[in-house]
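Exam revision sheet. Question 4 asks you to relate a sequence to its structure. Input first:
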Amino acid sequence: MKKTCLIAAMFLFYTLPCWGVNYHLEILQVGNLESFDVAVAAMKAELTQNGLVEGRNLKINRTIIEAAVNASAWEKAKIFLKISSNASRIAKAKPDLIVTVGTPATKYSKDKIIAAGIPLVFTAVAVPELVGCRSKSQAGPGFTGTTIHLEPSDVLQTLKLAFPRLKTLGIIYSDDENAVAYVEEMKRTSAKLGIAVYAKQVKQSDKITPVAGDLKALGVDAFYMPLDSYYTLRDYEPIRELRALAYQKKIPVIGSVIGGPPHSRGAILYIASDFKTVGGLTGKQILKILKDGLKPEAIPIARQEKLDVFIDRGELKAQGLSLSPQILELAKPLP
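Answer key, structure tokens:
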């Protein structure tokens, strides 16, 4: 009996080594988005699975700064000040690690957190270089993270698989910094794959229909909606207008983000990051620092290796469009 108890005690000791240590984790994010909730929940699940249990040996505080996607320049300035002040407050609490969610939260808090000597792990950042990373795979001293970046070559090759006759792709984007950077990447990559990208930038207040009509006149075979806050404006008005044009002209629309109410879904095909996977990867990054003792700068930026491809079969049927048998076999039904 004593031997059995000793074995059980040794098992607990070696499988749950961190239970004797209490950790303090802070989360800072801008924008109350469903996708961010999914990522944070998956991150917590990964930590729990590896012995870091919230309420037992892990304390987590989460700060969410509200932000409207169509904020004015003055409102954006106030948001940046809120990020900075909250970063200072959180750093003074001396947590063991800070997680920043999204580009603004990371970009405008990173320096204060790193200067305070606190490890930083970001998540759901679309373009790592925009938050000060050396590259898409290496961050820099004091921080690392997980990106939702989709390699343009992977996206374009998937589009060629779905639409074998695709020669021209239309992209409408705003001054959203993630969108601007990504469209430039798409342009550089597309020529190597035999696809011409026609891209037009709009103001956040602009209607999408006139610009989409201009691209249609240029003969685009499909529209691609990049990760851009423009598409969620005015109750998803740009998506609804693009969907109407797609119905009328029989031009497929491809999206890069899944979410929002049913009326906001105008694409027939989605090539997107899975925020549950992203959150799980973020949890693994945290564990490498807290449990394995690695320095953040020694940990490469993580990303989802395999693209998720989803089909909205309802939209596909309603618009009378078709996809290649290869993509139909590869893609999942839209959740």
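Marking note for examiners. The chain has two domains: 20-149+274-303, 152-272+308-333.
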